[in-house]
Specification:
single chain; alpha+beta; 2 helices; EC 3.6.1.7
C-alpha cells in the first residue's frame, strides 16, 4: 500500500540565496522521491512546493532546516495545499 501524498507550500528565510540552497533542496528532494519546485524571491527568501509521502516530507524539511556549512535557515513556514497528481519531478524555477 502506498502512503498518501501530501503537498506543502513553504517559504524559507535566512541565508538561503547565493549559497546553493535551491540545488541543495532539489538534490535532497530527488533523493527522497519528493516532487515540486523551488524558486528565489526578490525579498531574499526562497519559496517552494514539496509533495510526497509524509515521512519523506518530514525528512526533507529536517534536512532543509539543518542546512549546511553555507545554508542557514532561520525560519521556514509550511502551509498544506492541494496535491498535484501529475507532478512527477522536482524543478528549480527562475
Amino acid at each position: 500500500m502506498t502512503e498518501q501524498k501530501i503537498r506543502y507550500f513553504a517559504r524559507a528565510a535566512g541565508r538561503v540565496q547565493g549559497v546553493g540552497f535551491r540545488y541543495f533542496v532539489q538534490t535532497n528532494a530527488m533523493e527522497l522521491d519528493v516532487t515540486g519546485w523551488v524558486r528565489n524571491m526578490d525579498d531574499g527568501s526562497v519559496t517552494m512546493e514539496i509533495q510526497g509521502a509524509g515521512e519523506q516530507l518530514k525528512k526533507l524539511v529536517g534536512r532543509i532546516n539543518k542546512g549546511s556549512a553555507f545554508i542557514k535557515v532561520k525560519n521556514m513556514e509550511l502551509t498544506q495545499i492541494d496535491v498535484i497528481n501529475q507532478d512527477k519531478k522536482f524543478a528549480i524555477l527562475y
